[in-house]
Amino acid sequence: xxxxxxxxxxxxxxxxxxKASNEEQLKAAAAFCEDYKQxxxxxxxxxxxxxxxxRRLEAAGYVPFDPSKKYQPGDRVxxxxxxxxxxxxxxxxEPIANGIHIAASHIDSPRVDLKQRPLYETENLAFFKxxxxxxxxxxxWGTIPLAMHGVMQRANGEPITICIGEKAGDPVFCxxxxxxxxxxxxxxxxxxxGLKGEELNILLxxxxxxxxxxxxxxxxxxxxxxFETYGITEKDFVSAEIEMVPxxxxxxxxxxxxxxxxxxxxxxxxxxxxxxxxxHCTNPKTTLVTAFADKEEIGxxxxxxxxxxxxxxxxxxxxxxxxxxxxxxxxxxxCLSADVGAAYDPTFADVYEKQNSCxxxxxxxxxxxxGSRGKGGTSDASAEFVGWVTRMLDENNVPWQMCELGxxxxxxxxxVALYVAHHDVDTIDVGVPVLSMHVPFEVxxxxxxxxxxxxxxxxxxx
Length: 462
Ligand code: MN
Ligand code: MN
Fold this sequence. Notes:
Elements: H1 3-10, H2 23-42, H3 46-59, E1 63-64, E2 76-81, E3 85-90, E4 101-106, E5 111-122, E6 125-133, E7 146-153, E8 159-164, E9 174-175, E10 202-205, H4 217-230, E11 241-246, E12 251-253, E13 259-262, H5 265-279, E14 288-293, H6 310-321, H7 326-330, E15 334-338, E16 341-342, E17 364-367, E18 371-372, H8 383-395, E19 400-402, E20 412-413, H9 417-421, E21 426-431, E22 433-435, E23 442-445, H10 446-461
Parallel strand pairs: 1-2, 4-14, 4-15, 15-21, 16-22, 17-19
Antiparallel strand pairs: 2-3, 3-14, 5-6, 5-11, 6-10, 7-8, 7-11, 9-10, 12-13, 13-23, 17-21, 18-20, 22-23
One manganese (II) ion (MN) binds next to helix 5.
């Protein structure tokens, strides 16, 4: 054997598919990302993501899950968990006792939430107090246009949906910051304190309500606008879930348009790609369950996060229909924890270990483990399962790469993987590399987005 040939046989290097000669793939990826961008604009919160997904599921023939029914192979159902998380199932032709396939992503993203008593006035300016949600770098959230999304209830319990700052002509909101001319003291702060938590105040207005002698007349005017528009009062904010999110829309990035830039791609990129794989999956061999979870960004907590039992309960309902104990199903099941990877950024090369990083245009990132400080807090997939998944990807010509979250001891993170693995399911993280993850404008490569769709589709029919 020639030395060159031998080297090719012995060495391993993931392939970069970002080549102009990959015309077909580039075209397919660009076309796929058109509806993806639309979805990102429709789904800036977990609740909006659930609605946007149900619209697409119902158009594809999915119906609400009814546990009293006995579903047949090919049947397609969804279960809405409190409007903030979603489960779908396509019943397989093989008995459920053989195990199921689960794809689990999350649909919450880091953001700035309103406090429960948010409104205040100072020096004739009205503001909202906020409490940020998830891992944000607070200084990045100042001085960008923000939109207000969420739900409230009127005094009589009637629900209302709020969305301001998305339609053309809508006002937007912002968090102010210092001008460089006066920032000498602030400039000495450490970056995480560039803007402090209690400085993330949302600018709301400045016009005073006109009437008799009145204190807090700007706040009064804001409340009056809210009452006239929505029929709500200050007390109604107590139960509100209002999220301030970047007002910008998803866009192509780069002269070659090879990227998608948008808010909330962690993890709506995996939610969307696994959703489309589910929708396009007809008559699978193995029953396919796709989960879209809330609260991943703050530890998968609460009854809409995946540390809750709603996923195993749903699988138990499916198992009951075929008279199988759920634990017999779970121990034979496989899960792709569909979450993003930290794409190698050459500008900040220091924090990555290049050989084990994921790169844009090299396909889906496969994380055997996540966690921090010696794999702490991760589910660490088995050799057998890593082998099964990578063979499955290879057999379907899906570009993929192994990935670790930065250098050892540089930081770390987690996903929903350990919560699914906890139920005795083989689980591994598979997702899309993201540049500037968790910032207001995250960047993915279209080829990788499309690779994720192909990966979840291959898993669905495996
Ligand atoms: Mn994520
Ligand atoms: Mn995240």
